[in-house]
Structures are given as structure tokens and as C-alpha cells.
Amino acid sequence: MAKKSKFYVVWKGRETGIFTDWKECEERIKNFDGAQFKSFDSLSEAQAAIEKNYWEYVAKKEAGQKTLSKAVPASIGKPIQDSIAVDAAWNTATGDMEYQGVYLGSGTRIFLQGPFKDATNNIGEFLAIVHGLAYLQAKGSSIPIYTDSKTAMSWIKKKHANTKLALTPRNKPVFELLQRAERWLATNTYPNRIMKWETQYWGENPADFGRK
């Protein structure tokens, strides 16, 4: 079965527009401060989206998603806007992994790392949280961090990445990052809460790479 085509809208980047190839999109947004982009299943959706303000469009889309789900329990509530959301992406074809963090209040990307060869999504989620903690420590900030990975949250609690991934020459840099992250967790304390992003109630994680 042929892979379904995606259309990538870039509202803010080195060049804006609609792109049909992820690599072309990535060239416009990678390491671009505050990049704004999202993938769509059809050209008509992409064309409609690019004519709108990015945040207005995302807000409407998320609102639409919420109407399809059951009422948000009081114990869940709404996400804290003064926070960071982190996420990772893993390419099933190449094994490459990358991760990023965004400020929830504005959607501004604050860091992007990768791609890293022969890694896993769980490793990326773990590294993203530690990167976020170190970033906030340097800023003297106590705001929370959201992740949609229960596995990464458990690794953070144990201060150890319990990965089964085998070390190879290609992924050695990833293991070096893991050692650095575990060492940071072992030698630092932090006031920031690590919180679960409630996808079923709030929609997609704001740090999602939009490649689903």
C-alpha cells in the first residue's frame, strides 16, 4: 500500500508556503527561532490553513477536537500556559530521532536537537525532559514541563534511562547524551513538576512534530 502523501504548511521560517516533502519543510524550519509549521492530509486543508493566522488556526483545530471528546474532568482541568511542552519524533524508516521543546503560552520553540542516528522515541522523550529541566534551571524558572510519555516520566523518576537499545558506532553520540543526562539528574535538584500531557482532552502535544 502506497504511503499517504502529506502537505506541510510553514507559516514562519526561512521561507513560507506549502511543501509536499518533509525534507523541504525541514530545511525551512530547522534551527529557525520560533518556526511555525504543521502537516495536513490534503492540499485543500493546507491551502485553507496557510491563509489563516497560525495560532488562531491551531486554537480552532484544538477546540474542534475537544468537542469530540468527553467532558474534561475537574481533576484534569486545562493545561498550564506558563509551561514547556516537550516531544520527540522517531523515523521508522531511518531510525533517526530528534526532540524539541516549546513554550506553551506562545508556541515558540525554545530548543530542537537532532536528528540522531539509530535511537528510539523513548530516549528522545527522556532527553527532551532533561534538556528542558536544564534549560529552566539556567533561566531560574520553576514552571512545569509537559510530556505525553509515561515511560520517559518513569525514567526521570529513577534518574536512569532503562533502554534496551544496543550501543553501535552510529548511535554512540546518543549514549553520550544519555550518560550526560543521567549525570545531570544525579547531581541536580529542580522545582519543576513533570506533568502528563492529556492528549485525549487537550489535543495533540504542542511540541509534536506533526508528521503523523
Automatic annotation (TrEMBL):
Annotated Pfam families: Cauli_VI (PF01693), RNase_H (PF00075)
Manganese keyword on record: yes
Record field: catalytic activity: Endonucleolytic cleavage to 5'-phosphomonoester
Top-level taxon of origin: Bacteria
Binding, Mg(2+) 2: E125, D148
InterPro entries assigned: Ribosomal_bL9/RNase_H1_N, RNase_H1_N, RNase_H1_N_sf, RNase_H_bac, RNaseH-like_sf, RNaseH_domain, RNaseH_sf
GO cellular component: cytoplasm
Cofactors required: Mn(2+); Mg(2+)
Keywords from the UniProt entry: Cytoplasm, Endonuclease, Hydrolase, Magnesium, Manganese, Metal-binding, Nuclease
Residue stretches making up the RNase H type-1 domain: 78-212
Protein family according to the UniProt entry: Belongs to the RNase H family.
Function description: Endonuclease that specifically degrades the RNA of RNA-DNA hybrids.
Name of this chain's protein: Ribonuclease H
